[in-house]
Write a structure and sequence with these properties.
The chain is of the alpha/beta class and 410 residues long. It folds into 3 domains: 175 residues, FAD/NAD(P)-binding domain, CATH 3.50.50.60; 127 residues, FAD/NAD(P)-binding domain (3-Layer(bba) Sandwich), CATH 3.50.50; 80 residues, Enolase-like, domain 1 (2-Layer Sandwich). Helices cover 23% and strands 31% of the residues. The protein has 9 helices and 28 strands. Strands 3-2-1-7-21 form a 5-stranded parallel sheet. A 5-stranded parallel sheet has the order 11-18-12-13-14, covered by helices on one side. A 5-stranded antiparallel sheet has the order 24-25-28-27-26, sandwiched between helices. A hairpin with a 2-residue loop joins β15 and β16. α1 packs parallel to α7. The longest helix is centred in the last third of the chain and has 15 residues. The two termini are 43 Å apart. The structure holds flavin-adenine dinucleotide (FAD). The site of flavin-adenine dinucleotide has 35 residues, from α1, α7 and β24.
């Protein structure tokens, strides 16, 4: 393998950290640098809406790797540096203060919060209107939740629901406004969405589906939200209405972008020596033979590792079966595979105590599975469902729905 002199990783999140680790496990000579607009070393985001809000973990618990890992592995971390210009022809990226040259570049800029738009007006964050993506925002959010009484959460997706779960546990009154007719979007089976909804309602959270927000008015220190011609008052508004790939700085370049940076199964972009991984990438998945963009912890990690391998010359196809989770109250939701293209379903389990899993089948093979249960009840079967899916094992409804049939014996 030729010696690679300069590797730059743009973005300092999970994909970046794991790509750097992987590169160093193969090559120790190159000059390897991560550049991030955040001042912190790469850290886990999932606890920002859950355990961090509930003071169950500290910032140090969130770090993927401690500071000396970067020192020992000669991974330079340049924080508090936003890259705002890229020049692929001259292999250079720039902040407002400095240019950085590269031989190989990995883009791992993640995603950014989608802003709520009401009647053409974009609702930007302000003192008591909060969006959550990073550690700073989680700190602000935690303090604001502590001070607030009536909180409205706009968006009944994973992040909105996780924050609702955390805030209720702090004794707050919560209302959730969701534009769609079910929580968590259509990738989650309606039955599971309804179980989650029941759990939130059981602790007093008000949930309005099909919510059409007409206006948000600030009145003294609180807000009046007009939805479906009802007025709701809130002293804190939290917005979680989805996210967008962080591709703005590449808009006027030749980099191919379509709902994220287009990458092939080797994490390579349309530009030579430029790779992309994690939330920002719309990648070709050879197993499903389609492009997809995922926003999930495990994917960011695995995709970062894959990009690291390929960038350093170990050509490796990325074909991991997708997997993600969400924790709300004592419930754990997990999703594996893809659940939107199926011809049959099977249900395993009927109570949350034992765990309930819906399998999605196509031509008698599992293409996806989504489960919900108390604590870790569904973890093992979801993992096995992923394996059966990967192996394209033929199954039947009867095999899957009878809990006496162990999935690892199929
Ligand atoms: C609150 C929250 C809760 C979550 N909970 C779960 C969960 O329960 N389960 C799950 O599976 N997934 C969860 N996720 C998703 C998961 O955390 C993400 O998929 C993962 O962090 C993506 O990693 P990434 O490295 O692609 O991007 P990111 O982690 O977003 O990192 C990108 C980094 O690049 C930096 N950057 C962007 N542009 C520039 C620039 N121009 N210059 C310099 N730096 C730049 C960003 O500031 C950021 O630090 C959650 C996400 C959030 C925000």
């Amino acid at each position: 393998m030729n010696k690679i002199s300069k590797i730059l990783i743009l973005g300092g999140g999970q994909a970046a950290a794991y790509a750097a680790k992987e590169i160093r496990s193969i090559d120790i000579k190159s000059d390897l640098t991560i550049i991030s607009e955040e001042k912190y070393l790469p850290y886990e985001r999932p606890p920002l809406s859950k355990d961090y809000i509930l003071d169950k973990v500290t910032f140090d618990d969130l770090l993927f790797f401690p500071e000396n890992f970067y020192k020992e592995n000669k991974i330079n971390f340049i924080g508090s540096t936003q890259i705002n210009k890229v020049d692929f022809d001259n292999k250079k990226i720039s902040s407002s203060l400095k240019n950085y040259d590269y031989d190989k570049l990995l883009i791992a800029t993640g995603s950014t919060n989608r802003h709520l738009v009401i009647s053409g007006k974009t609702i930007l964050p302000e003192e008591n209107i909060i969006y959550l993506r990073n550690f700073e925002e989680s700190n602000i959010l935690k303090n604001k939740i502590n001070e607030a009484n009536n909180i409205t959460i706009i968006g009944g997706g994973f992040i909105g629901l996780e924050i609702a779960s955390s805030a209720v546990q702090k004794g707050k009154n919560i209302t959730i406004l969701e534009r769609a007719s079910q929580l968590m979007g259509r990738v989650i089976p309606l039955e599971i969405a309804n179980l989650i909804q029941d759990k939130h309602k059981a602790v007093g959270t008000k949930i309005h589906l099909n919510a059409d927000i007409k206006d948000i008015k600030k009145i003294n220190n609180s807000y009046e939200i007009n939805h479906n011609n009802q007025i709701l008052s809130a002293d804190l508004i939290i917005i979680g209405v989805g996210s967008l790939p962080n591709t703005e700085i590449f808009q006027n370049t030749s980099l191919k972008i379509d709902n994220g940076i287009i990458t092939d199964e080797f994490s390579a972009t349309s530009i030579e020596d430029v790779y992309a991984a994690g939330d920002v990438s719309n990648f070709y998945h050879p197993f499903y033979q389609e492009y997809m963009r995922l926003e999930s912890f495990k994917h960011a990690q695995n995709h970062g590792i894959n990009a690291g391998k390929n960038l350093i010359g170990q050509k490796t196809s990325y074909n991991k079966i997708p997997w993600m989770w969400s924790d709300q109250f004592n419930l754990n939701l997990q999703l594996t595979g893809i659940c939107n293209n199926y011809d049959a379903t099977a249900q395993r389990g009927s109570t949350l105590e034992e765990g309930i899993i819906y399998f999605f089948l196509k031509n008698r093979k599992i293409v996806g599975a989504c489960g919900l249960g108390v604590g870790g009840k569904i973890g093992r079967d979801i993992r096995l469902a992923g394996k059966l899916s990967e192996k394209k094992t033929k199954v039947t409804n009867e095999l899957l729905s009878d809990k006496n049939n162990k999935l690892n014996k199929i």
